[in-house]
Specification:
Keywords: Membrane, Transmembrane, Transmembrane helix. The longest helix is centred in the first third of the chain and has 24 residues. This protein has 564 residues and is α+β, with helices and mostly antiparallel strands. It has 3 domains: 140 residues; 325 residues, no CATH class; 61 residues, no CATH class.
Length: 564
């Protein structure tokens, strides 16, 4: 193949354009990484809208930034070639290079190759995904509060009151209170929310107090009655008990309704099964007791005796000791602070109640009947509450019929639909807990939009808190990618400056051969280079040239050019 003359002209098309583009891409990727991290720092993960995950996006940007880490042509063939092959070779190079000043660029690139080991690891450490609460206040979180009580069921207008099916849910919830169950307060809270909160709330409610009453026996009278479930008669001791209540908060009321007399009966001789003993009696006196200014809802009292006795004859019989209980109910204003609704239930940091003060009553004639309403005020909050007379009176009358009961140890016919063993239920219940349940249930019924019993309900807005996964940036781990980019840029600029007066051969392996190739006569081949020789020039000079590694006259190996 004919020899070629050295090409001495400079061809700018093969200058540093590829490297400039690579460094530009590296800088742009790093800048994009910083911008991305800044935009997503401390934001909810659900707001990430790209089809790939944040970790994948960051890994992609750091991978693009590594395009500037391509191996460079090195002056020392053995050490530099090893350094270009990976971190281990770079580390060996750092310990063996003899002139750090002359090899400044190559030392830098060796360090760069070693530091690049941590680039992917640092990128993985950039993101954390902590769980923290996010507050939403968009009006969807509400809790009911009663500004008055005008029942939709027990206050239904004629002629449909007898056909009013809405009374059934109300009665059902009230009956559940006799088992100690409390109707839940009404609120709306998103299903996925960890909790919902309200600062404070005031509502019309029913308050209660519970105490033990004093009881004394007034003696017993003997009588004969039929034995339950059998044809024969038995002797019973009917004992009278007098109840008094020295703990009543209303002395005038206590004087009006106390003392109260109740009676219990016991079979003689006593038996262990189906004795027919009357062991419980209770009464409910509906309010108000001072019309129309009174706020009393009603008074409940009960007498309870042991279920069995150990008396065999009339002569040995003494009235068994009985327990008496007293509960008072009244209309009140209830205030709650620091309300939290969680899956486990509703909790309050603090709560208080206040007996209402009468303001005025108003009477309206609608052409069919005369209707009255009573307006009361809570002095601590300044809020006014209105009670409709029909609701007021009908509800307390219902409690009178419900809680006036007796319980006897006898058989009932379960098929008789008229029998509801209220007395037996009350006898077995914790009456103090039942009293609290009645007051809380009535309060919550008046506030409930679920039961939809009250016309006078308002919504109190609250806040929802969600357990949200957030993106949080660990900025310390960004130092390595930034340092890599800065070092790449600096080393590239130094490379351009240092090689400005040298052949620009970059990573061509032909540069290793060009100055050592000789022909058959032992003369140096014309693969000569000047400071203006480019990689493209060298490729053209080497085209078609065949070389062979063989010993010279002194036995030293070298590359020799062969024409064929």
């Amino acid at each position: 193949m004919p020899s070629r003359k050295p090409i001495t002209d400079w061809q700018p098309s093969w200058w540093w354009w590829w490297e400039i583009m690579a460094v530009t891409i590296c800088i742009a990727s790093t800048a994009g990484l910083v911008a991305l991290l800044k935009s997503i720092d401390n934001t909810p993960l659900r707001q990430w809208n790209l089809p790939i995950q944040p970790n994948t996006a960051i890994a992609s940007l750091t991978t693009i930034a590594k395009v500037a880490l391509a191996p460079r042509n090195l002056a020392d063939l053995q050490l530099f070639d090893a350094a270009s092959r990976g971190p281990w070779g770079s580390l060996i190079f750092l310990f063996q290079v003899s002139s750090p000043i002359k090899a400044l660029v190559t030392v830098g690139f060796s360090l760069l190759t070693i530091l690049a080991l941590g680039l992917d690891a640092s990128a993985q450490q950039l993101l954390q995904f902590p769980i923290q609460e996010m507050e939403i206040n968009d009006g969807s979180v509400v809790m009911g509060a009663a500004t008055g009580y005008n029942s939709k069921s027990i206050n239904a207008r004629p002629p449909i009151q007898a056909l009013n099916a809405n009374i059934i849910p109300l009665q059902y919830e009230i009956l559940n209170t006799l088992r100690g169950s409390t109707f839940n307060s009404y609120f709306t809270c998103p299903q996925k929310a960890a909790r919902c909160t309200w600062d404070n709330l005031s509502t019309l409610g029913v308050c209660s107090s519970w105490n033990r009453a004093s009881v004394a026996s007034d003696g017993c009278a003997m009588t004969t009655a039929r034995v339950p479930g059998g044809p024969s008669n038995a002797t019973y001791a009917v004992c009278n008990y007098t109840l008094s209540n020295s703990q009543s908060g209303n002395s005038e009321l206590a004087a009006a309704i106390y003392p109260q007399q109740l009676n219990l009966s016991f079979r003689l001789p006593s038996v262990d099964f189906i004795s027919g003993n009357k062991v419980f009696e209770s009464h409910f006196i509906p309010g108000p007791y001072h019309y129309p200014a009174g706020t009393e809802f009603g008074e409940f009292w009960a007498l309870k005796a042991p279920k069995s006795t150990n008396f065999s004859t009339q002569a040995s019989f003494n009235p068994p000791e009985a327990e008496a209980f007293y509960a008072s109910f009244w209309w009140c204003s209830k205030s709650y602070q620091g309300i939290t609704a969680e899956p486990s239930g509703v909790k309050y940091e603090a709560s208080s109640s206040e007996r209402l003060s009468f303001l005025f009553n108003k009477t309206i004639n609608n052409g069919i009947s005369t209707e009255s309403s009573f307006t009361y005020k809570a002095n601590s909050t300044g809020m006014n509450y209105t009670l409709e007379e029909g609701t007021f009176e009908t509800l307390t009358t219902y409690f009178n019929s419900l809680l006036t009961a007796e319980a006897s140890d006898e058989l009932y016919v379960i098929a008789d639909g008229s029998i509801l063993a209220i007395g037996g239920l009350l006898y077995q219940q914790d009456l103090e807990n039942m009293t609290t349940s009645i007051a809380d249930t009535l309060t919550n019924i008046m506030r409930s939009r679920t039961l939809d019993e009250n016309f006078n309900i308002t919504n109190v807005a609250g806040r929802a808190f969600f357990d949200e996964t957030y993106i949080r940036i660990q900025w310390i781990w960004l130092l390595l990618p930034l340092a890599e980019t800065a070092l790449i840029t600096l080393l590239f600029i130094l490379s351009v400056v240092i090689t400005s007066k040298q052949p620009l051969l970059k990573d061509s392996v032909l540069a290793y051969l060009a100055t050592t190739v000789k022909d058959d006569a032992g003369n140096t081949s014309d693969l000569r280079m000047t400071q203006w020789t480019s990689q493209q020039n060298l490729d053209e000079l080497a085209e078609g040239v065949i070389v062979k590694l063989e010993p010279d006259g002194q036995g030293r190996l070298g590359f020799a050019r062969k024409d064929t």
